[in-house]
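Bug report

Summary: structure tokens for Elongation factor Tu differ between web form and batch submission.
Environment: batch mode, default settings.
Steps: 1) Submit the sequence below via batch. 2) Compare with the web form result.

Sequence submitted:
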Amino acid sequence: INTSHVEYDTPNRHYAHVDCPGHADYVKNMITGAAQMDGGILVVAATDGPMPQTREHILLGRQVGIPYIIVFMNKCDMVDDEELLELVEMEVRELLSEYDFPGDDLPVIQGSALGALNGEAQWEAKIVELAEALDTYIPEPERAVDMAFLMPIEDVFSIQGRGTVVTGRIERGILKVGDEVAIVGIKETVKTTCTGVEMFRKLLDEGRAGENVGALLRGTKREEVERGQVLAKPGSITPHTKFES
């Protein structure tokens, strides 16, 4: 199970949402997703309360620098006892405070994903409340669009008849169709040309800092590029295999 990307809109913003698995076996994938977030939604089941991996995810969130967390307490339709819901919320807030998140102040929404999917009005309203919390609690991030293009490569695909696509989140700068780019790190640096930019299955003229994109590379074979390398403006970065601490 890898992190999966979806997109959605609120009246104020467009969100790229990276879904990180909660299962303990998939923590490494959670790190891949978490390291590129402007904020996070911590999902806790009201029926279980905080689980051991909830603590792990909060700690990882702190370590990889997630700046803001909103809590969605799920399955609240399965808990009749109001006091129990309050207790779970209190536990989650305390756990977040333990890792230096503002546990007393951050938004906690008590909802039911299943209830909302089934069209039940009270639970649909909670999803709207969650979207409003995203818009108001997480500030507009500043994007480094004026700097030299850089994108860590998260995944590599081969598309029949089109070539090799690398995916990742653009850390800085802008990537335009037709731009020359360098594949840097692990192996010898290789230059190629970006012949296509795609985001959520839509073809674009360019990708900008902060966006999750796929870049089609001219004449690049699938085995010539791998996760862990970066795509960059040629000459803008140099890889090192040794350094003095």
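Above is the batch result. After comparison, the two runs are identical; trailing whitespace caused the diff. The chain is about 25% helix and 30% strand. The CA atoms of residues 71 and 108 lie 5 Å apart.
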